[in-house]
Amino acid sequence: MRPARLSAVTALAAVTVLTAVTGCTEKSDAKDGDGAVAVTAKDDSCEVSTKEFPAGHVRLDIENKGSKVTEVYLLFPDDRIVTERENIGPGTKARLTAEVKAGDYAVTCRPGMKGDGFRRPVKATGGTPAKRSPEMDKAVAGYREYARRQADETLPKAKAFTDAVRAGDLDAAKKVYAASRIGWERTEPVAESFGDIDPKVDLREDGVADLKPGEKWTGWHRLEKSLWKEGKLGAEDKTLADTLDKDLAVWVQKVGTAEITPTSMANGAKELLDEVATGKVTGEEERYSHTDLVDFKANVEGAQTSYELLKPVAAKNDPALVTELDKQFAALNTLLDRYRPNTSSYDFTSYDKVTTAQRKDLSDAVNALAEPLSKLAAAVVK
Fold this sequence. Notes:
Layout: H1 8-13, E1 37-41, E2 46-48, E3 52-54, E4 56-64, E5 70-75, E6 81-88, E7 93-100, E8 103-109, E9 118-125, H2 134-166, H3 170-186, H4 197-202, H5 220-230, H6 235-255, H7 262-280, H8 292-317, H9 319-337, H10 356-373, H11 376-380
Parallel strand pairs: 1-4, 3-9
Antiparallel strand pairs: 1-2, 4-7, 5-6, 5-8, 8-9
């Protein structure tokens, strides 16, 4: 689940409540010398070096001059995410490369990674689309087909889960819960392109505070809590099962028309690895079922599929990066395999049995992969 995540550093800092105020300070009407848009994130503002830039490939050079961990988004007018970078620590910098068409957008900084943050309207001008090679188009088509296949395969697995919930069969529902989520977790590199489906089906309990008035906590994790913590299934859970079926059916429809680009594939893979580091490794994602390693593995598979499809382009532009990514993906997969007796199954060790030292090893392996993966988008558009 992408929204409402906190890094370990942010969790410690969260004792200070961030009041969400929408606002932004324009720095100047000029771009960086090399064509990048400079974004300066502070605790009380979001400074952007230009309010207009050419359509095509845009690069955001981000610097966090605030005292809190922050995140920066480039948003469509309807708040769908074009690209994002989370967990930007105080005094650190980050870089984002995205593909945009002409139109209105917004740059948003969220100090503390909470609330609405500070928004600055920006515009991509001109009608020149980003240049794509045949290899790029093939990668996008390949990932769309992969996402469609995962969505189609998820529906019957999810229905087995929701049928068990409707039947009031706790044991049966627990047995198929993790498997019902694999396809969703594999497609999370482009989850933001599915609109509001993500929070409807995959919101964790710590994200409930971010719901708007009138919105209810729905999805897998609400049912997870009923199954493992409350130990009972009532009428409300059966209604939640119906809602999950309906939301996943909408997801399947959206996969075919989702806005997917080479840069969204690359950036999404990197952000997903960050989510693994801040949610799966810590045990926050599946806090009641302890099936975190199933999600973990599915996320890595989704990120790796995105990378493998983009690899022919990246190999031409940055062969050293490809060598490093191959190495780090292999190392992380080897480490994950230690926690399942059969590498052809998704029967992983319950995460509450994974020691603190073992979790650190997993975290180190994820971070070793995430760092070079952050360079993939730039390598693809060189």
